[in-house]
Amino acid sequence: MPEFQEYEGRWAPIPTQFHSLYHEGPFTRCVDCERDLLTGDCTYFIERVFRGSEPVCEMAMCMDCRGAISQELSAESSQRLQAFVEERFDMEARFEQTGEWPENDIDRWLEQCVITKQPRTQHRNYQIVGICRGDQMSLDMLPILISQTATEEMQKLLSKKTRDRLGQMIDDFFGMPPEFADNPDSYSPLLW
Ligand SMILES: [Zn+2]
User: Fold this and answer.
1) What is the residue range of 94's domain?
2) Cα(38) to centroid of ligand 1, in Å?
């Protein structure tokens, strides 16, 4: 991941696709440390999980909390994940491509899974991930859409320790609907 803290690329007001269903507007606090996200003094991730067009889970987490969780993952898991993503996701091409898309057409960024390259319409379950600061979202490589199919592939690369830690985190931060809870590999926060 590039250093988003220092990244000065394109930004736009957070689109409604990344608003909170629960709060009926922008996310206001980090799910972990509860810091105020809208003051603009930190970069944070927004992740929302969908079943069809229906949002089923969502969270916003600041970069500090995210970094702390990444630190806990085993080195082997992180390396396998990095290698997989490098092989399947051409980030340079993505930067070039998204640079040509208009800021008011956020759906372009979310048209297909960046790993499987299949259109969103072919994936019943998927998550979208964006990077924000204050009330603005970065429009560059992210936002992205990751299908459940791709998530399950990535979960297979992780050690048991890492999967257990992620499972704990999901328990802590999401009230997962039963259909996801039955299949713990169907969702993972983006950690690469
Ligand atoms: Zn936090």
Assistant:
1) 11-173
2) 13
